[in-house]
Structures are given as C-alpha cells and as structure tokens.
Amino acid sequence: MNLKLSFHPEFCQDTLCHSDTALRCGLDNRCPPELLDNLGRLSALLGDIHRSLNICTGALKVNSGFRAEALNEKVGGVPNSQHCVGLAADVVCPEFGSPYDLALAIAQLPCEFDQLILEFGKWVHVSAAPLGQTPRRECLSIFSKDEGYLEGIVKR
Fold first, then answer.
1. pLDDT by 10s per residue, the chain, length 156
2. How far apart are CA 31 and CA 22, in angstroms?
3. Helices in 53-130 by DSSP H: which ranges?
4. Cα 112 to Cα 127: distance, rounded to the nearest angstrom
5. Distance CA 26, CA 71 (A)
6. Contact status, residue 3 vs residue 17, Cβ threshold 8 Å
7. Do 140 and 116 form a contact (C-beta atoms < 8 A)?
C-alpha cells in the first residue's frame, strides 16, 4: 500500500519532513516508516485547517514539521516534542495575517487539533493527538522561555 495516498496534497511527506537546517547540517530528517501514520494524521489536520480557513493553495507554509532527534536538538526543540513523532508542524500564513491572527482563527475552528501554540509571536505550532487519544484542543502562547507558556492565544 502506498501511504502517500493518505496525505493531503498540500502537506505531503516531503513537505512535512523538509528542513533547511537539516540540509545545511547534513542531518537525515526522513520520517521512519513506523511514524508515517502520525505524519498522515498531521497532514489531514493541516488540510482541514487549510480548507476551513479557505486559504489559497500554497499559502499555509510549514516552517518545521517532522524532526528527527538530531534536528530537534539542533534547533533547540524540547526532548518530548510532538515534532519528533510526526504529530506537529510550525506554520505561518502571511496572506491570511499575522501568526496571532492565524492562531486565533484556528482556535475557533472545529478542527481536531491537540495543541495550538502561538510561539514567540512568529509562528503557530499545531499538533494532532496521538492515535486513540482525544484531541485536547489546548491553546497556549509563549513569548520567552523565562516566562514560559501562557493559557490561551495572547496578543503582545
């Protein structure tokens, strides 16, 4: 069976695994076969967001999707990051508005996201729940590591 068939065309495996940092540093950032189902679930979630917000083709940009452990460490990701299991992506959509506007709009959608985090006012982290778990629809904001996470989508 070709698992790529279950991916949303805007958010294919290549898009969700691409990393300029990995390329620059010579890191292998291919998603292992046992995590492809997670990556497919993330792709479907991003497709739902794309469709629900009526965003133009190619406008919702994935800055960071799947991260192999070495890449996650290189970019300063947390050790238990959902990126490392293929369940999270950091996205922006300048055509839609600021990261705050995008996060606020996604928070109001009926989409089944697990976490939605406005990160440092620069991008939106969105994740799918692990298989068999109910999506938490947790909304957070973070502006500095010292301050930590704040409840809700906060504008600064």
1. 333 446 888 899 999 999 999 999 999 999 999 999 999 999 999 999 999 999 988 899 999 999 999 999 999 998 899 999 999 999 999 999 999 999 999 999 999 999 999 999 999 999 999 999 999 999 999 999 999 999 999 998
2. 13
3. 69-74, 99-107
4. 9
5. 10
6. no
7. yes
